[in-house]
Amino acid sequence: MTEQLLDKNKAIVVFSGGQDSTTCLFWAKKHFDEVELVTFKYGQRHAQEIEVAQAIADEQQLKHHVLDMSLLSQLTPNALTDPNMAIEANDDDIPNTFVPARNLLFLSFAGALAYQLNAKNIITGVCETDFSGYPDCRDSFVKSMNVTLNLSMDKNFVIHTPLMWLDKKETWALSDDLGVLDYIRERTLTCYNGIIGDGCGTCPACKLRARGLNNYLVEKGANN
Ligand SMILES: [Zn+2]
How many angstroms does the Cα of residue 86 sit away from the middle of ligand 1? Predict the structure, then answer.
């Protein structure tokens, strides 16, 4: 039996419609000929997260796969899926937005989809720098997952993490390099209160995003 080689020019992006994964979408478009998106539906607090992702996919004319992962919300209560729970972030602990095994499951399903599509490349916007409280967003986990995917399907997938070592300021800089800073600023949804673009301004996700953007714009202004 001759093994069918994965298409090295084809990529799928794990896509939520937020700043990070949208930056990854444009990074992928720059590096690969054929890009498709996969969004996981798991009982997010805000249904418009899926709508925002779909709208961006349509605007960019990319094929968009939405996979139902609602079983995640059955496993444990957490602030991302339970609308009655307040979002809390603190410095020492894992934030209560943590969904155990979320990224493990997402990357497994992304791998299964990549197998179906014969795509060699899987791109995820996880990063260690800002939300390092999530253990399955760390580089060591992603590398281990890459090995596991390859062993499980006898393929040579490559998981790319273009944001792994970037802080939010550097992620904005990357989107500016890619020529899409304004698009990402206006069209993506990061806010825990479901407000698109610059968001509510007060939740932890908005604060992090705004601080990074301000730092980047100040630095850019100083260099001009
Ligand atoms: Zn917000």
Answer: 12
Tell me the one-letter amino acid at 167: D
- What the block records as the tokens of 119 is 């795509």
Instruction: Indicate the annotated binding residues.
Output: 15-25, 191, 200, 203, 206
Nearest alpha carbon to residue 172 among 161, 156, 183: 183
Asked if residue 203 is part of any domain, the answer here is no
Q: How many domains does the chain have?
A: 1
SS3 percent helix, strand, coil of the chain, rounded to 5, is 45, 15, 40
Q: Is residue 201 part of a domain?
A: no
Q: Give kind and range of the element (H or E) at residue 160.
A: strand 158-160
User: What CATH number has the domain bearing residue 101?
Assistant: 3.40.50.620
Residue 124 in any domain: the answer is yes
pLDDT in tens, the chain (224 residues): 456 799 999 999 999 999 999 999 999 999 999 999 999 998 776 678 899 999 999 999 999 999 998 888 777 665 555 556 665 554 445 555 667 788 999 999 999 999 999 999 999 999 988 655 688 889 999 999 999 999 999 999 999 999 999 999 999 999 999 999 999 999 999 998 889 999 999 998 899 999 999 999 999 988 87
Annotated binding site for Zn(2+): 191, 200, 203, 206
Domain assignment present for residue 172? The answer is: no
Structural domain that includes position 151: 7-167
